[in-house]
């Protein structure tokens, strides 16, 4: 049985190497933040120098890697704030983009800082200032010294929304003493799915500290909807049959356009609202549409669809919530190739049912549940996509049942949110 009570030689090797490499890591990080326009003062947050005072009272610290992980906890923080009106919150995330978005959407009594580099000096400086009463690490963002040194202060720790790749799990399993030591620092693991719970046990986590949960993205606040744009699109499209293909990648639009060509044979006035994952591919996607013999209008050019528009190319950022509110038939890209799929909860939160290709491994358990409940459907090629969309366009009853199932699935996830919030509150020291 591995001894998890003390640091291992590998951990000591890591701490020594991090001390040597810290100046080089700092130089690289500072350059990257500076290139984005982050001030020198805020850059020094990566060295543990706080730019905000610590608030009075209990402080719950959330650490996340990037945009998706950071935004996924905002709804949980808001719920915790309702349950504990005296609590204060800190979010740390490493990317300028995540910092920008978090600061626009933060709930009350919340603030953002960049996290310290994983060196002893930076981490200790950070902890000495903020003195968190509870630390919550989101998804797979585990920095050994940050974890170990935070726990050494007496701060209870949680790994929330935990998920790990098979490669990461296999690497840790080969080092059972170190894996057990790092995992022993956590008081609680809340996993996205049963597979991650099983993997944590393999890695040496105490079974009584593991609690399977759900994906926090399922309970995030719905995407914003611009009512003016929504009404303009409804007027422009009228009663035309409409479907959305969202977050498509290079190599997927050809299949989506082939599906739409088949749909047009049955429903010649149908319109496809195509939303590339990366809007800067707009010119490339326009060429694909024209090569397919289809007409288009482009959102980035300020155009609106007309009666002659086969495809409306929505090559802009920040409007996808409006498109989901406009149309309840959504194909989610990133799934026809081995990309891993994209978030099915966002369309479902706005009342839409979801169609996906087979490559949705990043959301495997959630999609499996939604498919089993009739809230989502799988289609592997253009023919299958066309068949499902044509059915939805022609049979309102079947579409209504699917949308209702998607709405019911999302509603059930709020129970997980309340249970997770309650579990975190239980770990807070007595005030």
TrEMBL record:
Pathway: Bacterial outer membrane biogenesis; LPS core biosynthesis. The active site is at residue 69. Keywords: Cell membrane, Glycosyltransferase, Lipopolysaccharide biosynthesis, Membrane, Transferase. The keyword Membrane applies. GO terms for biological process: lipid A biosynthetic process; lipopolysaccharide core region biosynthetic process. Its EC number is 2.4.99.12. Pfam families: Glycos_transf_N. One of its GO terms (molecular function) is Kdo transferase activity. GO terms for cellular component: plasma membrane. It is found in: Cell membrane. The gene is waaA_2. The record marks 139, 217 as: Transition state stabilizer. Its main location: membrane. Residues 42-218 form the 3-deoxy-D-manno-octulosonic-acid transferase N-terminal domain. This is 3-deoxy-D-manno-octulosonic acid transferase. PANTHER family: 3-DEOXY-D-MANNO-OCTULOSONIC ACID TRANSFERASE, MITOCHONDRIAL-RELATED, 3-DEOXY-MANNO-OCTULOSONATE CYTIDYLYLTRANSFERASE. It comes from the Bacteria. Involved in lipopolysaccharide (LPS) biosynthesis. Catalyzes the transfer of 3-deoxy-D-manno-octulosonate (Kdo) residue(s) from CMP-Kdo to lipid IV(A), the tetraacyldisaccharide-1,4'-bisphosphate precursor of lipid A. Belongs to the glycosyltransferase group 1 family. It catalyses: lipid IVA (E. coli) + CMP-3-deoxy-beta-D-manno-octulosonate = alpha-Kdo-(2->6)-lipid IVA (E. coli) + CMP + H(+). It comes from Tritonibacter multivorans. InterPro entries: Glycos_transf_N (IPR007507), Glycos_transf_N_sf (IPR038107), Kdotransferase (IPR039901).
């Amino acid at each position: 049985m591995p001894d998890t009570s003390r640091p291992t030689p590998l951990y000591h090797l890591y701490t020594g190497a991090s001390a040597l490499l810290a100046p080089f890591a700092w130089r690289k990080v500072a350059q990257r933040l500076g290139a984005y326009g982050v001030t020198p003062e805020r850059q020094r947050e990566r060295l543990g120098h706080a730019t905000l005072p610590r608030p009075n009272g209990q402080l719950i610290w959330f650490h996340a890697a990037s945009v998706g992980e950071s935004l996924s906890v905002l709804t949980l923080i808001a719920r915790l704030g309702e349950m504990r009106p005296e609590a204060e919150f800190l979010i740390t995330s490493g990317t300028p983009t995540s910092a920008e978005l978090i600061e626009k959407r933060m709930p009350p009594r919340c603030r953002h800082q960049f996290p310290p580099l994983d060196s002893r000096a930076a981490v200790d400086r950070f902890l000495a200032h903020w003195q968190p009463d509870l630390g919550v690490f989101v998804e797979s963002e585990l920095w050994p010294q940050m974890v170990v040194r935070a726990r050494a202060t007496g701060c209870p720790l949680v790994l929330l929304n935990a998920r790990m790749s098979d490669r990461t799990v296999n690497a840790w399993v080969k080092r059972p003493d170190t894996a057990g030591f790092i995992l022993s620092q956590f008081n609680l693991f809340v996993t996205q799915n049963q597979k991650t719970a099983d993997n944590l046990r393999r890695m040496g986590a105490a079974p009584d500290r593991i609690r399977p949960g759900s994906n926090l993205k399922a309970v995030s606040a719905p995407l914003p909807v611009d009512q003016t744009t929504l009404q303009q699109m409804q007027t422009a499209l009228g009663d035309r049959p409409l479907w959305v293909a969202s977050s498509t990648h290079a190599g997927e639009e050809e299949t989506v356009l082939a599906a739409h060509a088949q749909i047009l044979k049955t429903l010649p006035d149908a319109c496809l609202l195509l939303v590339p994952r990366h809007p800067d591919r707009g010119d490339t996607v326009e060429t694909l549409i024209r090569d397919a013999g289809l007409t288009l209008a482009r959102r980035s050019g300020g155009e609106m669809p007309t009666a002659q528009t086969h495809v409306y190319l929505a090559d802009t950022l920040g409007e996808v919530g409006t498109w989901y509110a406009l149309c309840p038939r959504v194909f989610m890209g990133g799934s026809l190739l081995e990309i891993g799929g994209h978030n099915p909860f966002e369309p479902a939160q706005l009342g839409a049912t979801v169609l996906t290709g087979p490559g949705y491994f990043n959301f495997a358990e959630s999609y499996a549940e939604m498919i089993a409940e009739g809230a989502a459907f799988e289609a592997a090629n253009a023919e299958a996509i066309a068949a499902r969309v044509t059915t939805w366009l022609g049979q309102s009853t079947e579409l209504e049942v699917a949308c209702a199932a998607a709405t019911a699935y999302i509603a059930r996830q709020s129970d997980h949110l309340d249970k997770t919030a309650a579990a975190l509150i239980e770990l807070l020291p007595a005030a």
